[in-house]
Amino acid sequence: MSAPSSASLDPIVARTIDAHLLQKSQQSTGEDDPASDSDIDSLLDAADPILASHRAARLQQLSTALSAQKSLLSASHGTITTMSSEKEVMEIVTDTARTLVHFYHQDFHRCAVMDRHLEVMAPVHVEVRFLRIEAANAAWLCGKLGIRVLPCVIGWVDGKEITRVLGFEGVGEGCRTGDLEEVLVRGGLLIREKIGDAQGQHSSRGGGGESGGYLGWRGGKQKPRSSEDNEDDDDDWD
Q1: For position 41, what pLDDT does the model report?
Q2: Which residues contact 84 (CB under 8 A, 6 or more apart)?
Q3: Segments of the chain with pLDDT less than 50
Q4: Rounded CA gap, 85 and 134, in Å?
Q5: DSSP symbols for 82-138
Q6: 129-134 and 98-104 as β-strands: parallel, antiparallel, unpaired?
Q7: Whole-number Å distance between alpha carbons of 168 and 184
Q8: What is the pLDDT of residues 152-173, one digit of tens each?
Q9: pLDDT reported for residue 167
Q10: How big is the CA angle at 120 (ends 116 and 22), to the nearest 5 degrees?
């Protein structure tokens, strides 16, 4: 199941959809109802008060896009689902058009930071199914994918891996959500920037290559440890 692609959407309609999703994520009402006619009218008027001749076509395209959005929300898009089975993770990855999976450790501070960014992105990027699974519950999959650094975020399109972010590589741990979003757009997972545009200009990327915890276990016997044992014990297990 997929939403209309960025290329097929009128730019005004795309901005209207993005504004609608941002409003819903900020309101935190818990409701998934599409925008009312008055909401749509006001958003379109605000977006483009001059080109009224395109209004009917845009309203039709917007209605179609909102219907697709509602279908995605009913299929568990728009939020992060915590998984316990690596088999179920791969079933979703292969059956879903766009999927993001966060491999994490519950005791690693950087994994919690990554979760906070993804929790902001999920309600806005409903075209992507957001999942998270603890690395200890996905030992075989981590080995198969060569995951040795946490947090690790991997994006799939039609079951094929197209991008991954190791730790906070390329953005730095102090990045804004919009910076991480930009990386995932460049990687081909997210259709277009939404949060970054709302935040304004992206912050500069610092400390590219900062990483989280290192997965040092074999066969699940050893516990993960921090990749910065000599500097910070925050992510380490005793």
Answers
A1: 59
A2: 133, 134, 137
A3: 29-32, 34, 201-238
A4: 9
A5: EES-HHHHHHHHHHSSEEEEEEE-TT-HHHHHHHHHHHHHTTT-TTSEEEEEEGGGG
A6: parallel
A7: 12
A8: 999 999 999 999 999 998 888 7
A9: 92
A10: 165
Name, in order, each residue with C-beta under 8 angstroms of 179's C-beta and a sequence gap of 6 or more: 171, 172, 196, 202, 203, 205
Q: Where are the alpha helices (DSSP H) in the chain?
A: 11-27, 37-47, 55-74, 86-95, 109-121, 139-145, 177-186, 195-199
| Paired residues of 83 in beta bridges | 133
Which of 94, 107, 127 shows the shortest CA–CA distance to 2? 127
What is the pTM for the complete model shown? 0.68
- Cβ-Cβ contacts under 8 Å for 224 (sequence gap 6 or more): 105, 108, 135, 136, 150, 213, 214, 215, 216, 217, 237
Contact (CB, 8 A) for 168 and 111: no
Encoding tokens for residue 160?
């094929």
Count of CB atoms within 10 A of residue 236's CB? Answer: 17
